[in-house]
């Protein structure tokens, strides 16, 4: 496990823009995950550690895209149909033989076509006449033929280092002959909640107590990111307890994640604990919901202190924690696709701050998508997340939206 110096983020700051914070993450934090080789079948969701090159061309040989008849265009009549004797039959998985001039070969999908043939007629389009076939006019050279290397050339990079592998990536690696792949080791993430008010679901609830939902949320989100989650439980609201817990967890994890206790109240101890045990980088982000977010290093281990309100945890989980995890494991994150939708609400916001609005979508008769804002937009209202489809993103320079304006929408399903 790479040890970071505790002053890797040696400066503080006022309200910081999300991109600035993420740039800082990229500059100051190294990739800490080691490299291991895994069988292809275990590679889905893992981060590629090296470029993957094709061991062969794809397809490896010229082959037919259909069940039909292969011929040479030079044997076809200039006008009208052509009658050619059928010689030879090639099924998928079987080698082809040479084809005599002026003849056609029966071929099946995926079968190699005889050398020199440059067109394949679909069986549905031809007429069989004894041992000959009548080929219709009008088909172009190369039709229904898949040329060797048209998908991938041998030696080409098919998957770049940093790619988090998806099923289609695994399929391509298989198709070019890779039995196993070099991937980043799973990050080991230690997860805490903070707050005297928290109890475990299933326990009886005393006065002034609530159930801990952030740890369940974060464990699920981290699970979707494909990291190994170590549940370190709930911490009471004392600096000593928080500091002690962070210090003792630091050496054995790649990342520590906490929620709650990062605001400026006297009962918010995460910030002070991080400052005492290591160093703190930023704690007020220009993002809503979510403003208080701490990034620090304790005992050489990076730490992210997320806010306490569940919706703020969700939003900063997507826009801060997710990129941080990506950085630590050398993953290239593609920008989140945001789809234009029409807002059916008005919303005012401050300039200089990025804001996210929870919305449901409705399809209009003209096919366009209308975004409907949830009635409750408090950062503590969990049902506003379960009853909506995604987030409308209002960039820093916007002052809000007017009813009918177009704004970018990110479905929840794309966040992790
Ligand atoms: P804090 O930032 O610690 O002041 O917390 C802000 C709000 O989030 C408070 O209402 C807390 O009770 C609530 N909160 C903090 N942690 C959790 C948690 N783990 N689960 C549910 N709510 C929480
Ligand atoms: Mg608290």
From TrEMBL:
GO annotation, cellular component aspect? cytosol
Q: What is its EC number?
A: 2.10.1.1
Cofactor(s) needed, names only, are: Mg(2+)
**Transferase as a keyword?**
yes
Entry superkingdom: Bacteria
The UniProt record lists the MoaB/Mog domain at 190-327
Look up keyword Kinase and say if it applies. no
Report keywords, A-Z. Answer: Magnesium, Metal-binding, Molybdenum, Molybdenum cofactor biosynthesis, Transferase
Q: Name one GO molecular function term.
A: metal ion binding
Provide the reaction this enzyme catalyses.
adenylyl-molybdopterin + molybdate = Mo-molybdopterin + AMP + H(+)
Q: What is a single Pfam family found in this protein's UniProt entry?
A: MoCF_biosynth
The record's annotation in InterPro entries points to:
MoaB/Mog-like_dom_sf, MoaB/Mog_dom, MoCF_biosynth_CS, MoeA-like, MoeA_C_domain_IV, MoeA_C_domain_IV_sf, MoeA_linker/N, MoeA_linker/N_sf
Its BP terms in the Gene Ontology are: Mo-molybdopterin cofactor biosynthetic process
EC top class named in words:
transferase
Pathway the protein contributes to: Cofactor biosynthesis; molybdopterin biosynthesis
> What function is annotated for this protein?
Catalyzes the insertion of molybdate into adenylated molybdopterin with the concomitant release of AMP.
Q: What family classification does the UniProt entry report for this protein?
A: Belongs to the MoeA family.
| Protein name as it appears in the record | Molybdopterin molybdenumtransferase
Its source organism is Alsobacter soli
């Amino acid at each position: 496990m790479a040890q970071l110096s505790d002053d890797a983020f040696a400066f503080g700051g006022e309200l910081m823009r999300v991109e600035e914070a993420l740039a800082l993450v990229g500059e100051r934090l190294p990739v800490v995950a080691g490299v291991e080789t895994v069988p292809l079948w275990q590679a889905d969701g893992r981060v590629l550690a090296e470029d993957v090159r094709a061991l062969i061309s794809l397809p490896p040989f010229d082959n037919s895209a259909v069940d039909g008849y292969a011929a040479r265009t030079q044997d076809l009549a200039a006008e009208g149909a052509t009658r050619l004797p059928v010689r030879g039959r090639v099924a998928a998985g079987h080698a082809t033989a040479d084809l005599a001039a002026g003849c056609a070969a029966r071929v099946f999908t995926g079968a190699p076509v005889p050398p020199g043939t440059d067109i394949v007629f679909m069986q549905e389009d031809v007429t069989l006449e004894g041992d000959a076939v009548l080929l219709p006019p009008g088909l172009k050279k190369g039709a229904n033929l898949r040329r060797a290397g048209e998908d991938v050339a041998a030696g080409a990079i098919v998957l770049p280092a940093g790619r988090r592998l998806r099923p289609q990536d695994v399929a391509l690696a298989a198709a070019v002959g890779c039995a196993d792949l070099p991937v980043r080791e799973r990050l080991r993430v230690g997860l805490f909640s903070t707050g005297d008010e928290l109890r475990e679901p299933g326990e009886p609830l005393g006065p002034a107590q609530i159930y801990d939902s952030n740890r369940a949320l974060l464990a699920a989100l981290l699970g979707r990111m494909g990291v190994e989650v170590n549940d370190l439980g709930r911490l009471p609201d004392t600096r000593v307890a928080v500091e002690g817990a962070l210090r003792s967890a630091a050496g054995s994890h790649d990342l520590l994640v906490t929620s709650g206790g990062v605001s400026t109240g006297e009962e918010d101890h995460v910030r002070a604990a991080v400052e005492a045990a290591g160093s703190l980088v930023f704690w007020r982000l220009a993002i809503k919901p979510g403003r208080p977010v701490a990034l620090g290093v304790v005992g050489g281990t990076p730490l992210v202190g997320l806010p306490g309100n569940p919706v703020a945890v969700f939003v900063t989980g997507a826009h801060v924690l997710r990129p941080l995890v990506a950085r630590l494991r050398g993953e290239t994150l593609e920008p989140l696709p945001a789809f234009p939708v029409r807002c059916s609400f008005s919303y005012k916001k401050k300039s200089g701050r990025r804001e996210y609005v929870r919305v449901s979508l409705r399809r209009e008769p003209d096919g366009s998508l209308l975004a409907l804002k949830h009635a409750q937009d408090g950062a503590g209202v969990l049902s506003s997340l379960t009853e909506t489809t995604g987030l409308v993103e209002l960039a820093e320079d916007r002052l809000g939206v007017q009813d009918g304006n177009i704004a970018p929408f990110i479905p929840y399903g794309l966040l992790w």
